[in-house]
Design brief:
The chain has helices at 43-76, 86-93, 97-117. It is mainly α and 118 residues long.
Length: 118
C-alpha cells in the first residue's frame, strides 16, 4: 500500500498496447529444417557439416547419460531420507530395474572423485 496519495497509481492512466513493428507470420508453416543441412548442395561440405553435428550430438548424449547416472546415484543414496529404490528410479527414467541398478553404480563411480576433492 502506498504511504501517501502522491505514490498511488493514477487509475485513469492506462497502458497502451505496444505497436506492431513487423508483419505477423503467415498461416503457412515453414518447411522443417535440420540445421540447414538440406540447403547444402556440395556433398563434401554436407558430409563435413553432418559429421560435425553427429559428433557433437554423440558427445552431448554421453554427457547427458553421465548426468542421468549421477542423478540416479544421488536419488538412490541411502543417506537420503527420501531415497528411491532401483525400481522407482527405473520407472521415473523409463529404464528397466537392471539398467537402473547399473546406472546407479556408474553414477556412484562418477561421484567418487568429487567426494575426495571436498
Amino acid at each position: 500500500m502506498p504511504d501517501s496519495p502522491a505514490e498511488a497509481p493514477d487509475p485513469t492512466r492506462r497502458r497502451r498496447p505496444a505497436q506492431l513493428l513487423f508483419e505477423p507470420q503467415s498461416a503457412e508453416p515453414e518447411p522443417e529444417r535440420f540445421f540447414d543441412l538440406e540447403s547444402i548442395d556440395d556433398p563434401a561440405e554436407l558430409l563435413r557439416r553432418s559429421t560435425e553435428l553427429a559428433l557433437a550430438f554423440r558427445a552431448a548424449a554421453e554427457r547427458a547419460t553421465d548426468f542421468q547416472a549421477v542423478a540416479a546415484a544421488q536419488l538412490a543414496d541411502p543417506r537420503r531420507f527420501d531415497a528411491l529404490s532401483n525400481a522407482e528410479i527405473a520407472e521415473r527414467a523409463d529404464w528397466t530395474p537392471d539398467y537402473a541398478a547399473k546406472m546407479i553404480e556408474y553414477g556412484r563411480g562418477l561421484l567418487q572423485p568429487r567426494r575426495h576433492e571436498d
